[in-house]
């Protein structure tokens, strides 16, 4: 049973890519394997045929699946590769870092919220700049 989730930051602890980090992009629960996307992490070369006249064929790098036992989750709070503990909080099972005790699920959710706030702030700034430009053009 794997406690890994799609989008988790992981460090590879065994194999050719030992020590490299990336994020999980796919999980095969039956075979207990994960696909990790990162800088130079387990890529395989695949040949792609063009399906129509506009598409180009060629050799494409694709992420390979590696065994889930060869990766460890990186805690967003303490930035260490850690084992995952499960605690019961308010009737819900929550994944927790064994080093610092921080919740892995809450940290991921707060990171998503921060990214959403950042994009919202960018949109507001862009709208204000457009308003100022329109006002200057009207004068």
Give me the CATH architecture of the largest domain, please: Roll
Average the pLDDT over all residues and give the rounded result: 83
Which structural class should the secondary elements be placed in? alpha+beta
Spatial strand order of the main sheet: 6-3-2-1-7-8
Q: Number of helical runs?
A: 1
Number of domains: 2
SSE pattern? EEEEEEEEEEH
Give the helix proportion (percent range).
25-40%
Which term fits the overall shape? flat
Strand content: 35-45%
Query: Using only CA atoms, what is the Rg?
Result: 21 Å
**Could you name the ranges where pLDDT drops below 50 across 5 or more consecutive residues?**
none
The CATH topology annotation of the largest domain reads as SH3 type barrels
The separation of the N and C termini measures 67 Å
What key phrases describe this protein's structure?
flat; single chain; alpha+beta; about 140 residues; SH3 type barrels; two-stranded antiparallel sheet
Describe the structure.
By secondary structure, the chain is an alpha+beta fold. It has one helix at 104-138, and strands at residues 9-12, 21-28, 33-37, 43-48, 58-63, 65-67, 71-74, 81-82, 84-89, 92-97. The protein has a 6-stranded antiparallel beta sheet with strand order 6-3-2-1-7-8, with no helix packed on it. Strands 4-5 form a two-stranded antiparallel ribbon. The radius of gyration is 21 Å and the shape is flat. The mean pLDDT is 83.
């Amino acid at each position: 049973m794997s406690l890994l989730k799609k989008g988790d930051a992981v460090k590879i602890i065994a194999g050719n890519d030992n020590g490299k980090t990336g994020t999980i992009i796919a999980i095969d629960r039956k075979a207990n394997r994960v696909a990790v996307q990162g800088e130079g992490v387990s890529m395989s070369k695949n040949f792609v045929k063009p399906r129509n006249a506009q598409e180009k064929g060629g050799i494409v790098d694709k992420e390979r699946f590696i065994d889930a036992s060869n990766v460890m989750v990186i805690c967003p709070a303490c930035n260490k590769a850690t084992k995952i503990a499960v605690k019961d909080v308010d009737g819900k099972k929550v994944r927790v870092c064994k080093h610092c005790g921080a919740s892995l699920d809450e940290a991921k959710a707060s990171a998503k919220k921060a990214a959403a706030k950042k994009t919202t702030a960018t949109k507001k700034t862009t709208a204000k700049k457009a308003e100022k430009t329109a006002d200057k053009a009207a004068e």
